[in-house]
Amino acid sequence: MKTDDLIDMLARGPDVRVDAHRWRRFLVPALLGLAACVLLMQLLLGTRHDIGRALLLPAFWIKFCFALVLSVVGAFAVRKVSAPGAKLGGLAPMVGLPIVALWGLAAWVLWQAPPDARAALVWGQTWRVCTVLIVVLAVPVFIAALVAIKKRAPTRLRTAGAAAGLASGATAAMVYCFHCPEMSPAFVGVWYVLGIAAMTLVGALIGPKVLSW
Questions:
Q1: pLDDT at 153
Q2: What integer pLDDT is reported at residue 3 of this predicted model?
Q3: pTM, whole model, 2 decimals?
Q4: Would you give the distance in Å from CA 167 to the centre of its chain?
Q5: Which of 91, 170, 194, 209 counts the most CB atoms within 10 A of its CB?
Q6: Per the UniProt record, which residue ranges are transmembrane (predicted)?
Q7: Are 81 and 156 within 8 A, CB to CB?
Q8: Which residues contact 1 (CB under 8 A, 6 or more apart)?
């Protein structure tokens, strides 16, 4: 099917609307990767003991929605750049908008906080492991994204790999929210973003090697 996809995409252009069957090619690996990510989180870390109370706090939903938005943008990027000759188009600014918004909120929170409390808002208690755990949890989603991309015969391999890294890192951050005790937007704006950025960089580096066809 990869050769057929290539011929079809070259004939009709990379921006053609995909049908339901092609969406399923991405949906199934995505759901499997997400399920594996959740299972890995439960096996390694578990859900925070006070998750019921955390779900009532706006700060939890801020960090969750931040990761969710980036995960959705990453998923669309994966689907888009997997086609031969495809470009990100308007998706690139959409990656930066939630990050800038979060950093703006973090700056406001730090400005409102007493000077002696600002360091704790940035470093929290888990800064040593947060980024690493996001990267570890992202692995199954990353593999699933690479499998889905490779089936479509991409030509921009580095960009496609970066898109897979972005999607997997953001999805892992979203799942990690249910374990992480940190609530400060400043913490999320540093250590969550670093975890997502690390996966994006990994994807860009290994994309040309694993996605070549």
A1: 76
A2: 53
A3: 0.87
A4: 3
A5: 170
A6: 26-45, 57-78, 90-111, 126-148, 160-178, 190-211
A7: yes
A8: 151
Alpha-carbon span 76 to 166, nearest angstrom: 11
Residue 174 contacts by C-beta under 8 Å, 6 or more apart in sequence? 64, 67, 68, 71
* CA angle (11 as vertex; 18, 5 as ends), nearest 5: 50
User: What are the CA-CA distances from residue 127 to residues 37, 70, 184 (Å)?
Assistant: 21, 21, 12
Closest CA to 105 of 148, 59, 144: 59
The pLDDT value given to residue 80: 85
DSSP 192: I
Query: Chain-wide mean pLDDT for the chain?
Result: 88
For residue 82, what pLDDT band results from cuts at 50, 70 and 90?
A: confident
C-alpha–C-alpha distance, residues 107 and 112, integer Å: 9
CB atoms within 10 A of CB 18: 15
CA 157, chain centre distance (Å): 18
Contact 68, 195 (CB under 8 A): no
Cβ proximity of 189 and 146 under 8 Å: no
